[in-house]
Amino acid sequence: MANPLPSSTIADVSAKVELKAEKVSVYYGNSLAVKDVYLDIPKHEVVALIGPSGCGKSTILRCFNRMNDLIPSARVEGNITFDGQDINSKKVDPVELRRRVGMVFQKPNPFPKSIYDNIAFGARINGYQGDMDELVEKSLRGAALWDEVKDKLKDSGLGLSGGQQQRLCIARAIAIEPEVILMDEPCSALDPISTLKVEELMHELKKRYTIVIVTHNMQQASRVSDRTAFFNAVETEQGGKMGYMVEYDYTQELFSNPKEEYTRDYVSGRFG
After folding, report:
1. What is the mean pLDDT of residues 96-118?
2. Cα separations (Å) of 215 from 168, 179, 234?
3. Helix (H, G, I), strand (E, B), or coil: what is residue 37?
4. Domain boundaries, the chain
5. Cα distances (Å, whole numbers) of residue 104 to 64, 65, 181, 214, 263
C-alpha cells in the first residue's frame, strides 16, 4: 500500500487552507472503511476526490460536515478542522456546521414544495430576516437557473428536469450562505447537456465558495477541479474493502505526471 501523503501536500503555501484532515480514519462498527487520510482543501478552489468504488471517497466527504454522525455505526478518528476549528469538538453545533458546509447529493432531491419554497425553506428555519424574494432570485441566479424558472416559481420543484432539479438543489444549498459546498457525484444521474451546465456552474461558484466534489468521472475531475486526490482500496481479511488516499496534487500534474504507480494505472484506465 502506498503511504498516505503528509498534510503539506499543497505546494502553493499562499493558498489559504479552509478544510484540513489529518490522519482521518473512519470505522463502520469494527470495520475500518478508510485509513489515515491527510488532505488540505484551499479556499475558493475545487478539489476532486476520485477512485474506484468502495475506496472511501464519499465517506471522507461526509466527514467534512459530520454527516457520518447520522450513521449509528460510524466512528471518525483523527482531526478535521474548518477555518482552524476542530469540527468534532463538543463545542461545535453540527447543524450550524452543515449550514456553513452545505451538501449536494448524487440524486437530485428537491423538497415536494414549490420552486420558491425549496429555496426559502432553509433560510426560514435559519431565521433569515431579509427580503425573501430577493434571496430566492439571487440563489437561483447563482445556480444559473433563474431564467428557466422565474415565471413558474409557484410550480413544484419535482416538475423540473433532472438537471434543473440538481441546480435547484445547488440553489437551495447556497441560499443559506455556506462557505463550502460538498458535492457527492452531482452529475452521475444527469444527461451530458445537464452535466455540462453543472460543470460550468462549478467554475462560477468557486469564486464565492470552496467546493469538494466526489466523482467517478476522471474527465469531469480534469475539467472542473484545481486539485485532485486519488483514493484506492485493498481487500480486508473480513472480505470488505479499506480505502486510503494514494496521491494528492494539482489536477493537471496528477493526470499528466502521477508520482504513484497506482495513480498512473488508474488515470490511464488500466483498472477502476
Report:
1. 95
2. 20, 21, 19
3. strand
4. 7-267
5. 13, 12, 7, 11, 27
The pLDDT of residue 13 is 47
Radius of gyration (C-alpha) of the chain in whole angstroms? 19
Decide: 102 and 19 in contact? Cβ < 8 Å. Answer: no
Phi, psi of 209 (to 5 degrees): -135, 160
CA 259 to CA 52: how far, in whole Å?
18
pLDDT value at 187 more than 60: yes
Residue 108 sits at φ, ψ, to 5 deg, of -55, 130
Query: Apex CA 70: angle with CA 20 and CA 98, to 5°?
Result: 50
Residue 11: CB atoms within 10 A of its CB come to 10
Query: Does the domain spanning 7-267 belong to CATH 3.40.1190.10?
Result: no
Q: Which residues of 220-250 are buried (b: 16+ CB within 10 A; e: fewer)?
A: bbbbbbbbbbbbbbeeeeeeebbbbbbbbbb
Q: Which amino acid makes up residue 186?
A: P
Beta strands in 174-267 (DSSP E): 180-184, 210-214, 227-235, 241-250
* Centroid of chain to Cα 59: 11
**Share above pLDDT 70 across residues of the chain, in percent, rounded to a whole number:** 94
Comparing CA positions, the residue from 46, 53, 7 lying closest to residue 227 is: 46
